[in-house]
Design a protein that fits this description.
By secondary structure, this protein is of the alpha+beta class. It is built from eleven helices and 14 strands. The protein has three domains: about 45 residues, Uridine Diphospho-n-acetylenolpyruvylglucosamine Reductase, domain 2, CATH 3.30.43; about 110 residues, Uridine Diphospho-n-acetylenolpyruvylglucosamine Reductase, domain 3, CATH 3.30.465; about 110 residues, CO dehydrogenase flavoprotein, C-terminal domain (Enolase-like, domain 1).
Length: about 290
Amino acid sequence: MKSAPFAYHDPTTVHELMGLLADKENAKLLAGGQSLMPMLNMRYAMPDHVIDLNGVASLAGIVETDDAIEIGAMTRQCDLMAAAPANDRFPILAEALTQVGHFQTRNRGTVGGSLCHLDPSAELPCIAAATDARLAIRGPRGEREIAMADWPLAYMTPNLEADEALIGIRLPKRTALAGQAFLEFARRHGDFAIAGVAAMVSLEGETIEGASIAVAGVGSHPIRLREVEAALEGEPANEATFKAAAREARGIEAMSDAYVSGKYRQRLTGVLVERALTKAAARAREAA
C-alpha cells in the first residue's frame, strides 16, 4: 500500500515549525521516519499534513552543561552512540542503542522520534525512565518541561498536544550512577524486545548506596521498579541480594500478546534484573 495524500512542509527554523503546528490541523511530524513511514504506507496514520523536521538544524546536537547532558530531539541515534559527553556519563546509552534495529535504522532514527513513538519495547524510553530524564516541549503557548515519569499517557501515547513538538531531552548528571548495564531479550537481534532492563548501581565499598531499575517491553510504557530500588539500598552487593531483587521484580504486572504470555514476561524480567544488577555492580567496582 501507499500513503493517503498529504501536504508536505519543510520548515528550517523552530519559529517556522511553531507556525505550522499552530496553523495545520491533523499534522504529523517527520523525524527519522523509521516508524512513521511504514505507518503512512500501511495507512495506520493518515494525516492531512506532514511536517519534516530534518531541515531544522537547531533541533539536533548534544551539549554538556554543569548539571546535565542535553540532547536535541533530532539527534540521530548513531550520533548519540558516538558522543563522548553523553557516553562518558551514561555509557548505558551506547549499550542500549546497539540493540535498536540495525545500523541503517540507527543512522536515520532520532532520539525524539523514539520517545514520541513510545513503543513499549523501545530502548531509549527505558533509558530515559532509568535516568529520570526531563523532556523539553514547545508549542504556540510556549515551552514546558516534564519528567519522563509523566511522559507516557497510554499505549504509544505521549504527553504531547497536537500543536506541540518535543525539542530536547535532559539527562541530569546526578542520576548517573557508577555502574550501568542494559540487557534485553528478543527473538533475534534487532527485533522488538520481549523484555529489557536498564540498571544502574552505586556502591560504597560492597554496600549498595543507590540503584535505578527500569523495565521495557513488559507494560504499555517503561516501568521503574522503585520498590525494588528501595529494597536494595543498604544491602550487600552480592548474589543473594540480586536474587531477592529478581524475585520481587517477577511480581511486575506484565502484558500478554500473540507471541508470549504475561507470566513468561514476568519470569524473564526477573532473570534480566538479576543479570543487569550483577553486571552493573561489577562495573561499579571497576569504576572505583
